Amino acid sequence: MNDRIDDLLGKLDLSAKIKLISGSGVFRFAGDPSIGLAEMPVSDGPSGVRGEMWDERDPSVSLPSGTALAATWDRELLGEIGGLIAAEARRKDVYAVLGPTINLHRTPLGGRHFECFSEDPMLTGEMAAAYVRAVQAHGVSACPKHYVANDSETERFTADVIADDRTLRELYLYPFERSVQAGAWMVMAAYNSVNGTTMTEHPLLDEPLKGEWGFDGVVVSDWTAVRSTTGAAHGNDIAMPGPWELWGAALEEAVRKGEVPESAIDDKVRRILRFALRVGALDGTPQQVPAFGDEAAARLVREAAAKAMVLVANDGTLPLREPSRVALLGAAAAEPRFMGGGSATVIPAHTTSPVEGLSEVLPVVYTPGVHLTDHMIPVPMSLVTDPETGTPGLTLRYLDGDDVLATEHREAGSLMLFGNPNAMRAKAIELRGTLRADVAGEWRIGFAAVGTLRLEVDGETVLSDTVLPEGTDPVEMLLNPPQRFVTRTLAAGDELDVRIELIPAPGLPALGITYAVGRPRRADDEEFAAAVELARTCEVAVVVVGTTEQIESEGFDRKTLRLPGRQDDLVAAVAAVNPRTVVVVNSGAPVEMPWRDDVAAVLLTWFPGQEFGAALADVLTGAAEPGGRLPTTWPKLMSEVPVHNTQPAADNSLPYAEGIHIGYRAWLKSGVAPAYPFGHGLGYTTWELADLTVSGRTATVAVTNTGTRPGRQVVQAYLSRDDSTVDRPVRWLSAFATVDVDPGETRTVTIELPQRSFEHWTDAGWVVEPGVFTLHIGTSVTALPLTADLA
Ligand code: BGC
User: Which of 125, 509, 600, 636 is deepest in the core (most CB within 10 A)?
Assistant: First the structure.
């Protein structure tokens, strides 16, 4: 391969090489026909493959979020998910997926917590390796991100993480090391700095990444993370998105002047050519990937979602046994979060909400009980008609004065337009759709966008405004722009012709536009009382609570772990009238649950992907077991969380003062008991672990299902060390194994304890402290019945 690469490199002059190290589009690596190198589209990919465009006409399978996948602790399942991701990538003609996200849950406030796997580096590393292997087995590149220490969002472009070598090596770098061992072809360099240097110019790209670990793939910058022309002398290989001016003509000039060595550019190009050979973009066709039909994809997502759900408390109410009537409550039951917000967003062809999923199998009566947000929603397609086609949907026109550049029929209320060639040229965008009120009451009708906007209702201008972005993060501005609206009192069946016109801000193309509505709703107290009354009259109450896109998303961190709105009050009031209250928590990261000891059962679902409702129905009825175990500690109160600083100081520094003590390590150190410990999860059966034997670094344990249902257990192995001269966690995860066992059966589980889990990082490299380590085996970091000493 290397001779071929040298040969191709020799055919490129400096300016051709410079073209290759910047993208040729927002989500596209450059090609060069003179050497048979195709352009290489890439796509965000942690929880589904969006493709180059955000477009509902080319939908994607929406997968469970990172936290959910890690909650399965299931490498084989990750392998199957990797196959689905690769199939989606091929279907969308992309050569690489920008995932997995393998930063750590340093604090539950982190805005992208949902996207990352775990607070533990070992569990994160195992999930990352399984994902990378599975995707790349099909000739599609994965891209573990963001290298490194991008563990929170506040001022993410400038934050300067201050962390010592040991902390970096043992925690934050470790999942990347595992990904490289698994053969990753691409790694994304983060926005932030570490110890004073921005990551796209950081020596950590050389050592350990490209040197000690032998990473021979490409380092791609996070989008806009390349900061300087001369920074090209360092380890980042591709500047994205493209074309990136700092690495264009200015870089060519810098190389000619000797400010950046041409050898640095050659190394980048070699890596890009190697990458192209791997993904089939050089003179060839990419590897075939077995297609996943829609049904097979839905089945896998549904199975993964159920395996990820963590039953943290249950008095025996779950699984439900043919209840006569179920009160289903909570705004999130009808409008749940299938996925987290930000670049991980995909547009699924269909979704199943808890209301839809549970209504299929249970005698459900639904009312929301609370309103979570005052935000309007993108107009549902069931309520609008495209005036041009007469079918459900909207007409989108791209205008330049009186010229119509293009007209599209669209079937989504919220349209992302950046990267769209028509939108790049248009001077104005027009969105039209006839709204039909399905219920009587006061409707809000409006838009969400940035630019100069005009809203017409039945031919009359009712609102015009120039809307400026709020916040500073571009992702937030793109995905969560300000909303404006008018109100109208409508009778059921009333129709209104709605037209929204957007003139983008000077110098900017249209980035996106949302036709938004707020449906009539009952007054808060009336709605609340109706829910409590319904719960009183039903055999069981299921309350779905959750976060919103406004409080949990990429681009910002959370300020509180409380659930928004009156959700806590609703659960408490429902539990007071119905002893069989089951709470379903739909969040990507921990939330406070002040009512947790007063309800019959608590089920954590994370952001479970498009099949949420179906998977939830499986789990609540017992058709599937909630297979998940916590990949992150769940606190009682935010005030007790050991690590919360996400706000850089005035000099941008963000000290990781806690060192190696994050997550359960910090909880164990503080001595405070969380609500639910790392590794915890109940499932629907009972277990006994016995007969621990150890030979060398191999442990075996007999796992018996002592209950009456088949079940799945995650057997966890932790190490501890008495009389250590080194600062250590009280104990730390060494290895784990998942096992399925039938009722009454015993299976012997073998667990290999990796050498690394005995080592710690010193100035002299990895070292094993002589002496005795203790092995603890069990089912969570605090439920460890078996121990053995290891010399
Ligand atoms: C995110 C990356 C993402 C990229 C492209 C950035 O803002 O941090 O994770 O891959 O955008 O969408």
Answer: 125
Q: Which residues line ligand 1 (CB under 6 A)?
A: 44, 98, 145, 222-223, 343, 475
Cα separation, 181 vs 125, in Å, equals 10
Return the closest-CA partner of residue 115 out of 46, 42, 58: 46
Select from 1.10.760.10, 2.60.40.10, 1.10.510.10, 3.30.70.360 the CATH code of 685-790.
Answer: 2.60.40.10
Pocket test for ligand 1, best of 60, 98, 219 (most atoms within 8 A of CB): 98
pLDDT tens, 293-339?
Answer: 999 999 999 999 999 999 999 999 999 999 999 999 999 999 999 99
Q: How far apart are CA 711 and CA 204, in angstroms?
A: 44
Output the DSSP codes for 625-649: ------SS-B-S-GGG-S-------
Taking only the tens place, the pLDDT of each residue in 498-532 is: 999 999 988 878 889 999 999 999 999 999 999 99
The active-site residue out of 120, 222, 237, 618 is: 222
Protein residue with its CA nearest to atom 9 in ligand 1: 343
Q: What is the pTM of this model?
A: 0.97
Cα(241) to ligand 1 centroid in Å equals 10
Is 222 among the residues known to form the active site? yes
Round the average pLDDT of the chain to a whole number and report it. Answer: 96
Q: Which atom of ligand 1 is closest in space to residue 143's alpha carbon? A: 10
* CA gap 405, 427 in Å, rounded: 10
Fold of 393-518: Jelly Rolls (2.60.120)
User: What's the sign of the alpha-carbon dihedral 614, 436, 547, 54?
Assistant: positive
Q: How far is the CA of 81 from the centre of ligand 1 (A)?
A: 21
- 676: number of Cβ within 10 Å: 25
* Ligand 1 pocket test, candidate residues 28, 113, 343, most atoms within 8 A of CB: 343
Contact between 341 and 112 under an 8 Å Cβ cutoff? The reply is no
